[in-house]
Amino acid sequence: LIFLRHHIDDGLKYEYLTVKNPLELWQNLNYRFEHLKVVVLPKALNDRSQLRFQDFKTVSEYNSTLFKIVSQLKMCGEVITEDMLLEKTYRTFHASNMLLQQQYRLHGFTKYRELIGSLLIAEQNNELLLQNHESYPNSSAHLPEVNAISSDFRGRGRGRGRGRDSERNQNFLGSCNNN
After folding, report:
1. Which of 59, 64, 87, 145 has the most Cβ atoms closer than 10 angstroms to its Cβ?
2. Contact status, residue 22 vs residue 1, Cβ threshold 8 Å
3. How does pLDDT run across 71-88, given as a tens digit for each residue?
4. Which of 123, 55, 125 is nearest to 94 (CA)?
5. Whole-structure pTM value
């Protein structure tokens, strides 16, 4: 009785405060909320039928959504097996990943968590490969070093403000200023 009262909503606590028998409290709560199964079940069944692995950006998002639906179905008395979870995931791979789907099937996973663990590892490895590729894309030329010596370098103090090059620059600047 203490456990039930501790975990129910505050509004329900006050409503059922006078009930002293735990079995009676449980039956009252069950009677009050049993209709929710009728409301939740059709939506959960529809969500399960619409759920596709390919519609999610990450494996974690898919896994979280699937388990939310599975929890609702179990609450409504539906039996969900490991084979059902595996098959749902396999059948909803994107068409471009059919070879990958077949490889996962051939691996022979018997537990859904094993498949998801393998998919999470593959996703993480793909992210690392993409990061490495973005850091060093194919056929990219290495950037020149900052301290590289240019072939036009004439030495210290030459070509800046002295000599013929400086006079040409002064003449050019002077002709621009006159216009």
Report:
1. 59
2. yes
3. 999 988 899 999 999 999
4. 55
5. 0.60
